[in-house]
Design brief:
Layout: E1 4-8, H1 27-42, E2 47-51, E3 54-59, H2 69-80, E4 91-92, E5 103-109, E6 114-126, E7 129-141, E8 148-154, H3 165-169, H4 173-181, E9 189-190, E10 194-201, E11 204-217, E12 225-230, E13 237-242, E14 245-247, E15 277-281, E16 286-288, E17 305-313, E18 316-320, E19 327-332, H5 348-370, E20 383-389, E21 399-401, E22 406-409, H6 421-435, H7 441-456, E23 460-461, E24 474-475, H8 488-509, H9 514-525, H10 539-548, H11 561-569, E25 582-585, E26 598-606, E27 611-619, E28 625-628, E29 630-633, E30 636-641, E31 648-658, E32 663-666, E33 672-676, E34 679-683, E35 695-698, E36 707-710, E37 722-725, E38 740-743, E39 747-748, E40 754-763, E41 770-771, E42 777-781, E43 786-789, E44 797-799, E45 812-813, E46 816-826, E47 834-838
Helix pairs in contact: 5-6, 6-7, 7-8, 7-9, 8-9, 8-11, 9-10, 10-11
């Protein structure tokens, strides 16, 4: 078998051969246009959802594939970051809300024990400084080719703001914090300060500036807690955020624990197990109960022992602000049992301890049922729950979440104790939103209510709030419409209304599984909201559809599209319209050394009729031959391209029709291609070691050579540099009358040689096939003149000529916009010779 030799030149061919003045577009506009065009070539049906003057969602069709979820997400970062107004190096693989979190599993399938999606987080940086809550979250379907199906985006527009390292290092963060807090002696706890770039919050944008960020509170439990961003020059407050999230709900629990999630006066009190509660043998071992309240404590010996229990457990620690924490003890002879019953006298303060502990566990367990690795929550222990508080500022008649604990007020005046079921579910819902890194505001209020609705499977929230068991504080059975302009608790009902309406639609169609369907969507959708987004908008509808989808394309429908769209549509949160016709989802084949048949798999569907014909058209350089694909189950089709000899390039595309004669090609234009053979590297350069014998100069007299090694773009993993033909600025374009040639060192080619390199380009074209400006590759053999060589897939453009153009009209070339693309040339005709290649 022949061994295929390859010549590697890994570099960035940015812009070559300007022959006309460039249009007066900004560099950012050009970069965004390039990225957008590249995105649409890969995923023609992909859509952009704009919100508050920025791209909030990239969605609708899979737009990247890879060998892993992270690899697919990296395709977005490397190829399409300019679409969002930033460069790839401005994104770092870490979440904005938890610096130990870079990925998160989403949508747990209880039947298979697997997750449907992986969420990949990126934070926005500029010159190593984090941009406050600037982020992207990429949702990747956990399938063989890991299609990236949606990106949630909140990238801040920094314009020309470019803080220098010297400026950043000159700021004494601790001194700024100390000086500021000297004016607030009541704030006794504070976090380590960090330098950030402030560029606005939510829909409010502002000129970017440096700020010092930290959180401070007045003790434990906190009744004052704020996030500050301080101007390091003036010590003025740039931004202040109240981290105490309260809700004016009231209620009272009488009895041991009130059943059916009702207020104490509205249901029967029954003995209820306290899951995961703590028990200890005096002076010896301790244990946590299981979900049913049963425990086993390791004990040596058979003599009587004293067993102690308190209202605390593995995941929650309840503190009674009105006095000592409840504790029970009894003497038992092993094996017992030791049976404890808290709140036997049914008094307010102990009842609040019991219900605070019980329902905190109920809502936590419910969330983990649908995502067992929910960020922070799934490993969090000893979460504080304060009951019977009497703070004069917040109590009575209140409850709140401060980012690290829940607090509930004792009864007072006309208000009952607030530690009861739906209030607890609501407040812990805020914790779930916070741990997901999502915005609070009306979205947080809505999700707090949604958690109560999902758990109780009733639309009423706060039943018994006024003492009337038929009257609720709020209801999810409502007609709130988007957009909502009221107060955040009121507008939160828009989201609970959407969820309840969808629940009703699902219940009619799936009477035995509707609760798991809507709960799985609602709980996992919190992970998709960005940290700055506390609004309730139709992007939530997109989130639900994307989580529900199974084939990387929401436009051909999702398993529960009718129910979701009916539920959300009832509140003016309409779904994107379905597209009709044939859809093909396929991961292109890669290069292979195999000479056996090549398996081609695709998911092929139609929204209008059954699939009728599926064909692969393939070629090894001659005429294209058809190969039928067969259905292997569901919407999955498979065909085989015959095995080829080494050193062969195979091109192919998939064609499908349905019974109504709708047709589709994949790709829609052009062909996929792969190479058959093995590769021996005879020359390689990743541009990380300097020029390494490369030279460059103007090709045509009177024209400009702008080739140089820059750190503006890079394709090498872990690398920094590439060759660029253009200005020295990171966003600069090439100049007028530019005709530079970049030349390799002299290389002796062995047999069956090939050239492969990566190119990123923005070149001015006229139409989809004609070009004002262009890029080509030339070769010089044994010191002779340079002649143009043609890539394996050909040049897609020809030059227009004229205007002092150094090339004749009709010269084949590259033009237009390219994200990082691998180019390949067959150099077998030059084997055995010494050559130089000119770009």
């Amino acid at each position: 078998m022949k061994t295929h030799k390859t010549l590697w030149c890994i570099f960035a061919c940015l812009l070559i051969g300007l022959l006309m003045p460039v249009m007066a577009w900004s560099a950012d506009d050009i970069a965004a246009k390039t990225a957008y065009n590249a995105l649409k070539r890969v995923a023609p049906d992909v859509q952009l959802c704009h919100q508050d003057n920025h791209i909030a969602r990239i969605y609708g069709q899979a737009f990247a594939h890879g060998s892993s979820a992270i690899n697919s997400a990296e395709q977005l970062r490397l190829n399409y970051a300019p679409l969002l107004g930033i460069s790839a190096e401005d994104l770092r693989p870490v979440s904005v809300f938890n610096d130990k979190l870079s990925t998160q599993q989403v949508m747990f399938d209880q039947e298979t024990g697997r997750y449907k999606f992986t969420l990949v987080y990126y934070s926005q940086y500029k010159n190593d400084i984090p941009v406050f809550r600037g982020e992207i979250r990429v949702l990747v379907l956990n399938q063989a080719d890991y299609p990236a199906v949606m990106a949630s985006c909140d990238i801040k527009d920094l314009g020309d703001f470019d803080p220098s390292p010297a400026t950043a290092s000159s700021i004494n963060l601790e001194q700024v914090q100390k000086t500021f807090l000297s004016n607030y002696p009541e704030l006794v706890n504070y976090t380590q300060p960090r330098l950030v770039i402030w560029a606005g919050h939510d829909s409010k944008t502002t000129l970017p500036q440096l700020g010092v960020e930290f959180t401070a509170d007045n003790g434990t439990p906190a009744t004052q807690k704020f996030l500050f961003i301080i101007d390091p020059q003036t010590n003025a407050v740039i931004y202040k955020e109240n981290k105490l999230i309260d809700v004016n709900v009231t209620g009272q629990i009488n009895g041991l624990a009130t059943e059916n999630y009702l207020a104490e006066q509205c249901g029967n009190e029954v003995t209820t197990a306290l899951p995961y509660a703590w028990a200890r043998i005096s002076g010896a071992d301790s244990a946590y109960a299981d979900a049913t309240g049963q425990f086993t404590i390791t004990n040596s010996g058979s003599s009587a022992v004293t067993v102690i229990s308190q209202i605390k457990g593995r995941y929650f620690y309840v503190t009674n602000q009105a006095g000592s924490n409840s504790q029970l003890s009894q003497s038992v002879t092993p094996p017992g049992p030791a049976t404890f019953l808290f709140n036997p006298s049914n008094t307010e303060y102990t009842r609040a301890e019991v219900n605070g502990y019980l329902h905190a566990n109920v809502v936590r367990d419910y969330a983990l049922t649908y995502n067992p690795t929910y960020p922070t929550v799934y490993t969090q222990t000893n979460f504080p729950v304060y009951v019977n508080d009497n703070d004069s500022y917040y109590c009575p008649g209140n409850a709140w979440y401060d980012g690290v604990s829940l607090t509930f007020c004792r009864a007072g005046g006309s208000y009952p104790n607030t530690a009861f079921a739906s209030v607890i579910h609501h407040e812990y819902g805020h914790h779930l939103v916070e741990m997901a890194g999502s915005g609070q505001d009306e979205y947080g209020e809505g999700m707090g209510d949604v958690m109560g609705v999902l758990i109780s499977d009733t639309p009423q929230l706060g039943l018994g709030f006024t003492g009337n068991c038929s009257q609720a504080l709020r209801t999810a059975d409502n007609n709130y419409q988007y957009p909502c302009t009221g107060e955040i608790h009121e507008c939160g009902q828009l989201l609970s209304g959407c969820v309840w309406s969808t629940r009703n639609e699902l219940a009619a169609t799936y009477p035995s599984t509707y609760r798991s369907i809507i709960s799985n969507l609602a709980i996992n959708a919190m992970l998709l909201r960005t940290a700055n987004d506390g609004s309730i908008t139709p992007t939530i509808t997109i989130d639900y559809l994307t989580l529900d989808d199974t084939d990387g394309n929401i436009y051909n429908g999702t398993p529960h599209y009718p129910e979701i769209c009916a539920g959300f549509g009832a509140h003016n949160m309409d779904c994107p319209a379905l597209q009709t016709g044939v859809f093909i989802t396929h991961t292109p084949l890669g290069n292979t050394p195999s000479n056996s048949a090549y398996q081609v798999d695709a998911v092929i569907t139609s929204t209008e009729a059954s699939i009728d014909t599926t064909i692969i058209y393939w070629s090894n350089g001659g005429a294209y031959s058809p190969v039928l694909m067969t259905n292997i189950g569901g919407s999955n089709y498979r065909g085989y391209i015959p095995g080829q000899s080494s050193c062969t390039t195979v091109s192919y595309r998939i064609y499908a029709t349905d019974a109504l004669h709708n047709t589709k090609y994949s790709p829609e234009s052009g062909y996929h291609s792969f190479y058959v053979g093995t590769f021996d590297t005879i020359f390689v350069d990743n541009v990380e070691g300097g020029t390494n014998g490369w030279t460059h100069s103007a090709v045509t007299s009177g024209y400009t050579d702008q080739w140089a090694i820059r750190n503006h773009r890079n394709h090498t993993t872990g690398g920094t540099y590439s060759w660029k033909c253009g200005s020295s600025s990171s966003t600069g374009t090439y100049s007028s009358l530019s005709d530079g040639g970049l030349v390799t060192p002299e290389i002796t080619l062995t047999s069956q040689a090939a050239l492969t390199f990566w190119m990123w380009a923005e070149i001015e074209n006229s139409t989809t096939t004609t070009a004002w400006d262009g890029a080509i590759v030339e070769i010089s053999v044994n010191g002779g003149a340079y002649t143009r060589i043609t890539p394996v897939d050909g040049y897609p453009y020809t030059t227009i000529g004229g205007y002092s153009h150094p090339w004749t009209a009709g010269t084949p070339c590259w033009s237009g916009d390219y994200a990082w693309t691998q180019m390949q040339f067959d150099l077998n005709a030059y084997s055995g010779n010494s050559v130089r290649v000119r770009f």
